[in-house]
Amino acid sequence: MSAIHLQHLVKKFGDFTALKTMDLAIADGEFMALLGPSGCGKSTTMNMIAGMEEPTGGKILFGERDMAGVPMGRRGVGFVFQNYAIFTHMTVRQNLAYGPKMRGAAKPEIDRRVGAIAEMLQLTSLLGRKADRLSVNILQRVAIGRSAIMEPAIFLLDEPLSNVDAAFRAIMRTELKQLQRQFRQTMVYVTHDQLEAMTMADRIAVMDHGVLQQVGSPLEVYNNPANVFVARFIGAPGMNLLRGRPAESDRGLVIDLGPLGVTPPLPAAITAAVRSAQGDVLYGFRPEQATLVEGGQGLSLPVTFVERIGARTIVHLGQGETAVKAVFDNDVGLAIGQTAVVAPAVQSVRVFDAATGLALRAG
Amino acid sequence: MEAVQAKPTLRDEGAKLGFRLTLPAQILVLFIAVFPLLMQLYISLTDWSPLSGTGWWNAWSMWNNFANYTDLAVDARFWSALKRTAIVMIVCVPVEFLLGLALATLFADEFPGKRIFYSILLMPMMVVPAVAGYMFFMLFQSGGPVNDILSSISSFPVTIAWLSDPTLALIAVMVADIWQWTPLMFLILLAGLVGVPEDQIKAATLLGANSWQRFVTIVLPKMKTIIIIALAIRVIENFKIFDTLYIMTGGGPGVATETISVYIYKLTTQDLIWGYVAAIALAILIVLSIAAVFAMKRMARAREVPA
What we know:
The complex is a heterodimer of chains A (363) and B (307). Chain A folds into two domains: 4-86 and 134-223, 3-Layer(aba) Sandwich (Rossmann fold); 233-360, CATH 2.40.50.140. In chain A, 25% of the residues lie in helices and 33% in strands. Chain A has nine helices and 20 strands. Chain A has helices spanning 42-50, 92-102, 107-120, 136-148, 166-183, 194-200, 218-223, 228-233, 268-275, and strands at residues 4-13, 16-26, 31-35, 57-62, 65-66, 77-80, 154-158, 186-191, 203-208, 211-216, 240-249, 252-256, 281-285, 290-292, 299-309, 312-317, 324-328, 339-344, 350-353, 359-360. Chain A has a six-stranded mixed beta sheet, with helices on both faces. The radius of gyration of chain A is 24 Å and the shape is elongated. Chain B is flat. Helix content of chain B is 73%, strand content 0%. Chain B has 13 helices and no strands. Chain B has one domain (75-303): Orthogonal Bundle (MetI-like fold), CATH 1.10.3720.10. In chain B, α4 packs across α7 (166-194). Chains A and B meet through β6 and α2 of A and α8 and α9 of B.
């Protein structure tokens, strides 16, 4: 009933195409994150779902119902704004009561619903407070409560954590996820922060330049990026990509990386796809999947920079075309200028077509 | 003198130096602001007039035991002028406010030709009030354009003597004031309207509020401070209404359009009883000050809830 279907959705602002033919099915009760850099069309998509923008082409269905021409006040959509858009001239109670009141609910009915929602969001003691001097996590709860009181089938959240400092963000991520479990609504969450998307979403829709790049569970998107953009965008730092050519060796199919030598054999699952590739390919592996090898087989590169961030150490190796990052759980005794040999874990290697940017994989 | 003196702190020193450095300016301000007021108070207690043949500083010899103030209390012409001023204000300010608000609401959205209309709308405000007075003086002549328009609408000749009829003259004067000052109201209110956070309006829409509900529950409360400012400006300005009115009617016919300012002007230039004028001016200043304090208090209260 509250599933969302986007069918061939297009949005143009004059000559600028903000969204190029988007197809996406969001299941009932699903937490879907729209993830991408600024200007990728994620907010435009969200605004069209909410009815703030009219699509240039395509359809938006809520369940079976076409939303074309349905004004935003009648879509039954809860929307949490980036800055929460709390009515600062009202009390918390008035904010929560706003929706039912505007729809003409009776006073006892409003009081009952406000009481219930305040209870659920632990806002009961704050009901009498003016909304202009509340801390962000309370504002967020008021914003959610104000929408939730309308019992919307769909909840849209537009980068609700982007104004919050890092420590608070961690708390609020958990809080949001718990709230979603309580409400069991379909949630669409727009963010440019992959950590938020990865930790909260059931599935992530990665977008760039108005094009949907990949839809999948957080781990699927992380482990099997569909293309070079997703590979680079997901993960911190993103996937290492090195240009090379497939070559046969006595150990199986490898990639000839030119001056960097030859890679270890590729995982069996992708050899067929790589073998049939035309031209150059990009050899990709996650920085977290690299290990230091002493004198063994691997990529031999000079250390250019070492970032030590407590729990992890990020080692930058090589430059330009051959730049590689490796992430280690512990500090490693490497200094700038030294040469290190890193080897990617074989099963984690992904290969992309250098021309199209698409992943080369079976099927 | 004192055996034990607290050592002056750096802060005290700074304050002292600051006081000394700003002293000349402070004296100047004091002279500009306070001196005329004291002079007025002094003269208002005497029968002094420029015809007395002595300087104003000698006015003490004409001390009249508050006679100016007791006269004022029973001066029917003063009270009727005050009442008329109040009527003009009670009609003009709300009309200007409502028209200004309606126009501001209109201009908050985009429409073709907006910039041109915007410029046209602001023009009356830039017309010198005396010139506006002449314009309306001519418009409201019995053979003037206003009657011409009424004639063509009603299709029989209209020759209303607008400025000679006591009631119609007052209406004509109010029309001129509304024409000239609605743009100011519009400008201030538009600034306030544009400042209303768009997200909150969208949020209200998503929660099911219709446009009227949004206007009443979100837009107006957010504009409270600016509305009070706009009203205060116009109330104070309108109370002093003079140039346009004086050129249109001279306060006439009879005293039918005589407001406080016109009355004071006549007393000053025709009757030359300056002691009495000073008493009236002072009385009005006190009334306006009370109104201003009241408005500012309201504003401070409105600002406790920032937009």
